[in-house]
Amino acid sequence: PTYKEHTMAFFSIDNIAVRGVVTTTPSRIEENISYPLFGEGEAEKVIASTGIERRHIAGKDTTAGDLCYQSAQHLLQQLQWEKDSIDCLIFVSQTPDYKLPATSCILQGRLGLPATCFALDISYGCPGWIYGLSVISSLLSAGKMRRGLLLVGDTPTKFKNPLDKTAWPLFGDAGSATAIEFDTDAQPMQFILETDGTAYKSIIIPDGGARNPVTEQSLQPVEIEHGITRTALDTNMDGLAVFQFGIKRGPAVTQQLLDKTGHCTEDIDLFLFHQANHYLNEKIRKKLNIPESKVPYCLKDYGNTSCVTIPLTITTACQPYNLTKQASTIVATAFGVGLSWGSVLIHQQPVKCIEHLSYEQL
Predict the structure, then answer these.
(1) Residues near 42 by Cβ (< 8 Å), separated by ≥ 6?
(2) Are 267 and 244 in contact, with CB atoms under 8 Å apart?
(3) Are residues 232 and 217 in contact, defined by beta-carbon separation less than 8 angstroms?
(4) How far apart are the first and last CA of the chain?
(5) Which residues are bridge partners to 22 per DSSP?
(6) Among 138, 119, 120, CA closest to 130
(7) Which helix (H) or strand (E) holds 47?
(8) pLDDT recorded at residue 3
(9) Predicted model pTM
């Protein structure tokens, strides 16, 4: 094979089973129909195109770590896993609790996991659950570690400006916990993961990092145009570029994965797509000629929850698929900030626990 063929980002991971998925969203809800910056008839148009009617918003004292903590606590209880049996914890987010220390270390302590628990933060956005799944599965696949928690959470509303009508009505906050276990009877998970960092400015928070530290100017709101006001500490997204990227990469990586694994859409029970917006996702579904019945959505009640959209779709929109009672062949695909994208094929035995929780906050 050529060097490019040999190094293609396609790989398989053996001996890994998903045992449970729990998600948590804040109790506070905002309705898009009531968003004050929409003009007459605008809310209805945005809801129709995005599919997003409402979103769950974290309070000022609620973090992605809090939402993941509640998910993990409940998941461990439901699976009856002893805390001493957890060998690794991966936390995936772009809204960590602190600049330092790593939120994974904090969660290891809050959950009462053993000091021998490997803990790691991964800074990732929309494809974060798939990337995180590849990392934790790789750690466990050799059998030296037996059980792990993949905690994927984001509070994107903390870095969106309520006065930006192009972003604020689209995003919601959520956290998740996925239980992973070494299992020699499990069929391989197969991944394609890719990146294009040359387009990193397409979705960016300009200030607040080491490149551009916070200054007084960072806090100043700038009116881009009517209904679009941001500071340099808010997310700046090139909507058209990101839409074109999703339309190109989403279906392409899904088809590549099917081709590499020798499958067609008829072989797959369930396609889980990153919940970006309904119009974009329907374009992808139709491009791949996938029946509507195989593509669930959770956009209506939760919006785009960044790296949490795939586990959130599993817990809130997959009841008809009986994932806790029957085996399923699943393809999950996500794309976004980075820019980055990826897809995973999972031959999943019945999952022991799939639940969604509400996080009560003051």
Answers:
(1) none
(2) no
(3) yes
(4) 59
(5) 177, 355
(6) 138
(7) helix 42-50
(8) 45
(9) 0.94
Residue 312 structure tokens: 């959130």
Confidence of residue 266 (pLDDT cuts 50, 70, 90): very high
Q: Which two tokens stand for residue 102?
A: 């790593």
Q: How far is CA 324 from CA 2, 20, 156, 189, in A?
A: 43, 9, 30, 19
d(CA 58, CA 155): 7
Q: What SS3 state is found at 193?
A: strand
Tokens 């008839």 — which residue? 41
Please give the structure tokens belonging to residue 305: 């929850």
Give the C-alpha separation, 23 to 177, whole Å. 6
Distance between CA atoms of 53 and 297, rounded to whole angstroms?
12
Q: Which residue has the tokens 């990153």?
A: 274
Contacts of 36 (CB under 8 A, 6+ apart): none
**Would the pLDDT of 2 be above 60?**
no
Query: What residue type is 306 in one-letter code?
Result: S
Which region holds residue 259: left if phi is over 0, alpha if psi is between -120 and 50, else beta?
alpha
Structure tokens at 196: 């294009």
The DSSP string of 56-77 is E---TT--HHHHHHHHHHHHHH
> Do 345 and 261 touch, CB atoms closer than 8 A?
yes
CB 172 within 8 A of CB 178: no
User: Which residue carries 């439901």 as its tokens?
Assistant: 78
The neighbour count for residue 338, using CB atoms within 10 Å, is 21
How many Cα neighbours within 13 Å face the side chain of 53?
4
Residues with Cβ within 8 Å of 30's Cβ and at least 6 positions away in sequence, in order, are 54, 55, 57
Question: DSSP state, 232?
Answer: T
Spatial distance between the Cα atoms of 348 and 344, rounded to a whole number of angstroms: 12
* pLDDT, tens only, 7-28: 458 999 999 999 999 999 999 9
